[in-house]
Every structure is written in C-alpha cells, then in structure tokens.
Amino acid sequence: AEQVELPGPGQWVVAECPARVDFSGGWSDTPPLAYELGGAVLGLAVRVDGRRPIGARARRIPEPELWLAVGPRQDEMTVKIVCRCLADLRDYCQPHAPGALLKAAFICAGIVHVHSELQLSEQLLRTFGGGFELHTWSELPHGSGLGTSSILAGTALAALQRAAGRVVGTEALIHAVLHLEQVLTTGGGWQDQVGGLMPGIKVGRSRAQLPLKVEVEEVTVPEGFVQKLNDHLLLVYTGKTRLARNLLQDVLRSWYARLPAVVQNAHSLVRQTEECAEGFRQGSHI
C-alpha cells in the first residue's frame, strides 16, 4: 500500500461497486481447486436497476473507538455497533455475528491488532490520533448469489485503507479480500471480487501454484455486443438464500473424496472459460 495524506477528521471516503455475473468457470477460482488445477472465470460487472448496489464509507473520528453500521442503503443504517475494547472485536471470525465482516476488515487492513497487549484505544490513538467510523450497505438481498459479500469486503477495505492514509491498488485489493474471507472463515475464491472490483467483461486467471496470484484480462467485444447483452440480462429474485460457506463445504468434501464426476467437472471448467471468452471476443450470438 502506498502512504498518502490522511483525510481530515470527519471526512468520508466512499467506495461503491457494481454486482457481478459469472458466465463461465465459477468454482475453479476456489482454494484448493485453484491451487491444484489453476482457475479461470469469465465475469461481468453489472449495475442493478442502473445503480451500483454495493458500497462502503469510512471516516476518522476523535473518539478512540470503532463505530460500525450496516444497512440496505447508504442513507439507511439498520445495525449499529460500537467497539470500545478488543473483546468487542473477538467475534470477527463468526460470519453470523453482527458486523463480523467490518471487524475483519479492520484487522485485515492492519488498523487493529486483535492479539496486541495494547488496548484498542491505545492502538488507535498512537497511530491515528482517534478512531474510525465504517458503514457498509448492499441494496441486494443477503445470499442473492451476485457476489455481494466479497465485493462488500472489497469496498470496506478500500474505504478503510484510504481513510487510514493508504492507497491500495485493485490487484492488491483482490488478494486482500481472499485473505479477509479466510479470516472471517467463510472461505471462497477470487471470482466475486474480480467480477465486481474490475470494470466491464474480463477473465480472471490463477495458475496452479502457491502463493496464489490472480491476473485479470479485459475482454474486448464487438460494437453493439454489450447492448445485446443488456437487452438479454434479467435479474429474477427467487427469495431463496444460502450461505456460501455451507455450499462451499459440500463441494470441497466431494473434491477431497475425488468423486469422479466432480473431478471431471473441475477439469472442464477452465477449458470452457477460455471457449466462452473466445465467444465473447467474436460476438457470438446469445
């Protein structure tokens, strides 16, 4: 991260993102599949009803505390939490705990050291002369399958880092979200944050290696093709939600058991992504 001037106290830093839709390759980005096979996913950044539905804002406050808020819109916060001591942050690794993702963001951004001997107030006063307020919002239903939580983590980290006087590039942010989701214990891969943090149509790829490194290639499509896509994309909400972690555990058990159908499917994901990307470049008819 590059050090830059701290924003003035009380000055909001806002980050907003689109949702994402994946056309091919999902699951190949997920550890350990990505480590063992390599991954490739073709995804689109999409507005919902013409809006970027996911966002975060952060600012410095004089109190040596963390003020957290979560809501369905930027101007409507429904859950508010105040962290005055390190004990208030200890449930950062329990995804269902109120504000867990926001707490994990402070830890992953290096603003708070949860196992330090220094009290929370001391840590904040020493480095920043005060605390932080962080709000996140999503206009999409929880568990909608549009990559919301990973993109939300990206916006939270981006806003927090800038409020702390640091600028983080998008590539670093993609990897930081991977780390945050391991800390949060939800797990998951990199397709969601690539889809929502990078603009347009792109292919994300990672080689079968550790440490994992994600590279993103923008896919150029013929004139009129984006309009054709827009004309054909319709979001239908079924009302059914699922926690990605539970789905992830089921798939990974099948992978570890080396069930032939699952292994065969995983191998074909990357190949199909490259075929799909070529279809986009050619402007193949939907």
Explain how this protein is built.
- The chain has 286 residues and is of the alpha+beta class.
- It has one domain (2-282): Ribosomal Protein S5, domain 2.
- Helix content is 37%, strand content 21%.
- The chain contains 9 helices and 11 strands.
- It has a 5-stranded mixed beta sheet. Strands 3-4-10-11 form a 4-stranded antiparallel beta sheet. Strands 1-9 form a two-stranded antiparallel ribbon.
- Helix 2 (100-108) packs across helix 4 and helix 2 (100-108) crosses helix 5 (170-184).
- 38% of the residues are buried.
- The model has no long low-confidence stretch (mean pLDDT 93).
Give the secondary structure arrangement, pairings included.
Blueprint: E1 2-3, E2 13-17, E3 19-24, H1 33-37, E4 39-46, E5 54-61, E6 66-71, E7 79-83, H2 100-108, H3 120-128, E8 131-138, H4 148-163, E9 166-167, H5 170-184, H6 191-197, E10 201-206, E11 214-218, H7 225-232, H8 244-256, H9 260-282
Parallel strand pairs: 6-8
Antiparallel strand pairs: 1-9, 2-5, 3-4, 4-10, 5-8, 6-7, 10-11
Mean pLDDT, as a whole number?
93
Give the ordered list of helices and strands.
EEEHEEEEHHEHEHHEEHHH
Note the beta-strand portion. 15-25%
Q: How would a textbook summarize the main sheet? A: 5 strands, mixed
Low-confidence stretches: none
Q: At the first level of CATH, what is the class?
A: Alpha Beta
Number of helices: 9
Distance between the termini: 41 Å
Structural class: alpha+beta
Apparent shape: globular
CATH fold annotation? Ribosomal Protein S5, domain 2
Query: What's the total number of strands?
Result: 11
Helix content: 25-40%
CATH architecture: 2-Layer Sandwich
Strand order of the largest sheet: 2-5-8-6-7
How many separate domains? Answer: 1
Radius of gyration over all CA atoms, rounded: 20 Å
